[in-house]
């Protein structure tokens, strides 16, 4: 895996998968907290409706699958074409994730002084991941031969 620079390996093999699995744990085991941190004004409180609970568990399952896929697929290969394909799809998902918080108001994207722990994960952490993906896709930090060979 020497062809993929260490900062990308740290982010995409460790930091992001661990954060995704943490999201899965919260979405399944701490549903009232997860919902209150997402939008306190519309959260149902301690008694989460059954349909919401099922949807939250399905979300947790998707998070878990995504985290395990990222950690396992990217560990299985140093082939840049696989890394780029996988991370390009996740970059599109980053934009969808950022769009998903828009209903709470566009100020969510920049009013960092109002962010709670969920907001920190939904906005600046996603900005960071999207930027890191874009840098990898642009070949930043790769040796010139690796850039030319896999561009």
UniProtKB/TrEMBL annotation:
The keyword Ribosomal protein does not apply. It comes from Ampelomyces quisqualis. The lineage of its organism: Eukaryota, Fungi, Dikarya, Ascomycota, Pezizomycotina. The chain crosses the membrane at residues 12-30, 50-69, 81-100, 120-142. It comes from the Eukaryota. Residues 3-140 form the DUF7704 domain. Coiled coil: none annotated. Keywords: Membrane, Transmembrane, Transmembrane helix. This is DUF7704 domain-containing protein. InterPro entries: DUF7704 (IPR056121).
């Amino acid at each position: 895996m020497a062809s993929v620079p260490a900062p990308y390996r740290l982010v995409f093999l460790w930091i992001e998968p661990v954060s995704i699995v943490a999201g899965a744990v919260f979405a399944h085991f701490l549903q009232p907290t997860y919902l209150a941190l997402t939008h306190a004004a519309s959260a149902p409180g301690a008694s989460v409706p059954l349909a919401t609970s099922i949807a939250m568990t399905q979300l947790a399952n998707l998070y878990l699958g995504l985290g395990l896929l990222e950690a396992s697929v990217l560990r299985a290969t140093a082939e840049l074409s696989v890394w780029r394909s996988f991370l390009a799809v996740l970059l599109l998902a980053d934009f969808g994730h950022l769009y998903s918080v828009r209903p709470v108001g566009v100020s969510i994207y920049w009013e960092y002084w109002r962010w709670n722990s969920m907001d920190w994960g939904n906005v600046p952490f996603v900005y960071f991941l999207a930027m890191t993906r874009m840098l990898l896709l642009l070949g930043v930090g790769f040796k010139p031969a690796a850039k030319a060979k896999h561009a």
